[in-house]
Write a structure and sequence with these properties.
Order of helices and strands of chain B: HHEEEEEEEEEEHEEEEEEEEE
Shape of chain C: elongated
Distance between the termini of chain C: 43 Å
Helix content of chain C: 40-55%
Number of strands of chain C: 0
Structural class of chain C: mainly alpha
Helix content of chain B: under 10%
Low-confidence stretches of chain B: 1-21
Number of helices of chain B: 3
Number of domains of chain B: 1
CATH architecture of chain B: Beta Barrel
Largest sheet of chain B: 16 strands, antiparallel, barrel
Radius of gyration of chain B: 22 Å
Oligomer: heterotrimer
CATH topology of chain B: Porin
Distance between the termini of chain B: 46 Å
Strand content of chain C: under 5%
Mean pLDDT of chain C: 72
Number of strands of chain B: 19
Chains: A alpha/beta (about 170), B mainly beta (about 375), C mainly alpha (about 70)
CATH superfamily of chain B: monomeric porin ompg
Amino acid sequence: MYSYMKLILIATLFFGPSFFAYSADLGETAPAFSLKSISGPEPVELESQTEKILYIDFWASWCGPCKLSFPSMIKLKELFKDDPFEIIAISVDADSKSAKKFLDSYKINFKVALDSAGVAAEKYALPGMPSSFLLDQDRKVIAKHKGFRKSDFTKIKEEIEEALKRTGT
Amino acid sequence: MKKINPLVALTGAALALPAIAADQPTSAKLSFLSSTYHEKDIKNSTILSGAGKRYDIEKNQFRLVTPLGENWSGDLYVSQEAMSGASPWGTFDGADDESSLIMSGATIRDKRTQVNLSGRKYNEDSSYGFTLTRSKEDDYSAKGFGVSGEWDLNNKLSTVSAGFSFSDDEIKPVDALKFGRIEKGKKQTRSFAAGWTQIINQNSILFTGISHTVKQGLLSDPYKLRDTRPSKKAEWTLSFKYRQYFENRNAALHADYRLYNDDFGVTSHTAGIAWKKSIGDKLKIAPRFRYYSQSEADFYAFGDNYSLAKTEAQSSDHRLSGFGSTTTGVQISYELGKWSMKMSFDRYSSKNSLGHAESEKEHPALLDFTLWSAGFDLEI
Amino acid sequence: MKLLIIKLCFVASFFTSGCSSVEPWERGNLAKPEMQISGDAVDDLLLEQVFYSKEAASGGIGAAGGGCGCN
């Protein structure tokens, strides 16, 4: 009786934590995804984003710091509106109604996708909430951010400028 | 003949422990709560002398929590209360006669003000906070501080917390000369708490905590006719707080338990349960129930014994008797944009027989009370 | 007694292995205000004060952690 239990006990302790096959580490190609758009019928896909610097932000209506990151993202998009730069904000809210309610208080100028099942979130192995990834035109991850503080805005802005410079635009 | 219940006042000091820290606030919030507390009158037949009208308290609480810069938050809490009523001075254990309570005289009034000022610094995987507290009323003042820390482990699945608080209290009983009361008393409280919070799964979380408190100085009630308690007291608690979310019911279950023990000989169990139900996205209703039970202190006696030397420990305080209590209540809140209106009602009832280790004879001062509250939260 | 300890570990191992599967993006329910370990501070202070002045036991009210675990 005990030996079985001991065996299962050891097994759960060792193999319990799940490890991800995917990740989105610096220098790697960011995992592809195809998600429902919050605003229209056509899906938001990563494959379709090429030749552009892409800022992907994972957020949720229940996440406090996400309230700080939205005004910054709106400003970033505004700042780089003439450049090959795109933002995709991916909501991991289980209920899309909460995501929509959250967005009501902002004038969103970028694409918002829904990942209520957490498929993309799992592929990107988010280290925290919010998490963001900056991709170059080859879909390589060139910067990663965990959490959000107001001062992150300048850092992200510089990273985008740097990336745009490298693409020669 | 003023001020009869110093234990009411002691609370300002005891609540200095600032271990209550949530996620870093991203916007400021102002809260206001106004409450009316009413104790049921004492049965006239149990009163030997004095008034049977017990405590009424009107209380207003304000709180402002605000982010300060990127990494700090500030928290200002102010409460004011006006109390009036009478409370027990002593008991006389007369053979079979029911009347045994010696109450204070007619209605007396007092006011208490408490201010807590807290700050907290948030780092990526930890936070540190402090609280300064001050409480004042005519005959009682308390100054205290607290510090606490919180450390996230294992990608924030676990949180370890620890806190220390200190309070320095002074009591100057009113009419000390007239009634032969002690003129001035001091008390110091040191409290240490540590806890572990664990996310169990997507819908449940468990907190386990311990605390140890040492009180030194005047622990007796100077307003009672005969009340002598040891000048040092050590207390321990072990607590569990469990939260479970039920998605299909849109509700959260709260289940709390606390084991308490002190070297006055009191052991107590406190169990609480609440069902926090959301109806639509604006209305919340939360019925709650709490059960409390304590054993009597080693030196508790139903009747005051005047033949015992004044230095011998003895107390007829009903709060040191063996009894139990139930509290049944409900809280309702409604969201209106940035406003959240809230209301609650609780009814408390205590009895000898509800306890796990009841005293031999029920203390007539064991009380019942009702508590009404109404207020709001405003996101700024 | 030994069996009891093993049984307890057995149960605990389920908890801990269960714990590690709650990813940052899966904490929407845990982030709800009604799921916090410490409730509304003003309400808590009021009740604690009332009970403190009527009963011998006190303490052990502070708690930390929980929430969305946001960064």
